Amino acid sequence: MNNFEKQISGTDRIGLYSLKIETLQVNLGLRCNQQCVHCHLEASPLRREMMDWPTMQLVLEAAANIDCRFVDLTGGAPEINPNFRRFVSVLRQEGHPVQVRTNLSVLLEPGLEELPEFFHNHQVQLVASLPCYLEENVCAQRGNGVYEKSVEAIKRLNALGYGSNTEYPLSLVYNPGGPFLPPSQSALEEDYRRELGQRLGITFTRLLTITNMPLGRFRRELVRKNQEWSYLELLRKSFNPQTVNGLMCRHQISVGWDGTLYDCDFNLAIGLRVDHGAPDHINSFREMDLKARRIVTGEHCFGCTAGFGSSCSGALS
Length: 317
Hints:
CATH topology: TIM Barrel
Number of helices: 12
CATH architecture: Alpha-Beta Barrel
Distance between the termini: 26 Å
Strand order of the largest sheet: 7-6-5-4-3-2-8-9
Shape: globular
Largest sheet: 8 strands, mixed
Order of helices and strands: HEEHEHEHEHHEHEHHEEHHEH
Radius of gyration: 19 Å
Helix content: 25-40%
Strand content: 5-15%
CATH class: Alpha Beta
C-alpha cells in the first residue's frame, strides 16, 4: 500500500474501489489554444495527441452499454478535435447527455466561433474554466488577453440562455493561483456572482472549486520554486475523511485520447492506467469488470481529499 491507501484504510477496505460508473469522461486530445501554468496534462498548441474517429466509435459503443449520467468531454481543448462536432452530434442523437469542459477562449478561435450556437442546438452542458474573477489573476495563470476573451465568450453564451436557463447550465471553475487550497466553494461563489454580475453583467449556474494537482506543469513550477515538499505536506495534513465516498474516481471512468482507460484525468496525466485485473483499453470495455474495480492511487490523490475536497464536480464536503 502507498501512503494514500494507508491513510484511507480506516474509511474503506484495503485499497480504494469504484462504486459505479455515473460519468464516462473522454479526453479528446492534448492540443489546446492555451498553455496554462497550472495544467496537469501540460496541454498546449504544440501537442499533437488527438483521439481519432475509430476510437470515438468504440467510446460510442461503450456509452450505449452503460447507464451513465452523462458523457464528459475534456482535453486540452476538446473543441479543437476535428471530429468534435460529429462526435457530439452522434452522442446526442443516441440520447446521451453531453457535458463539455471548455476554456472559453477557444470559442473565439477561427472556425470555432459558431460553437456556442452548436452547443445550444444540441443542449450541451458546459463547464468553463475561469480561475478567478479578477483579470490580473487569470492572466497570470493563462496568459495575457485570456480574461477578455473569456468574458466575451461567457457573454455570448449568456445571450443564448446559458447560465440563466436550467436547460443550459454553465458552471465556472476556480483553481488556486498558487500552492494553497481553495476556499469555501459557496462563499467564493457569492464573490464570483457579485463581481462578475455587478461589473460585467455575467450570469452562471454554479461555481466549482478544484485543487491544483502536484502534476505536470504545476509540479514543475513547484519544483522550480522549491515548494513541492511543502505543498505535498499541506495536502497530506489537510486530509478530510468525509471526501472519500465522493471521490470522482469512484463514480467515473476516464478514456484517454488513444483509448486507454484511467480511473481519473489525473492518473491519465502520469500514465497510471486502470489495473488490478480490470480492462485497460476502450476496445475491451466491460462495465461489469470496471464498475467495482480497485482504483490505482498515488501520492497525488491527497489533492482530492484535502480540505473541502476536489473533483471534476467541485468540492466534496
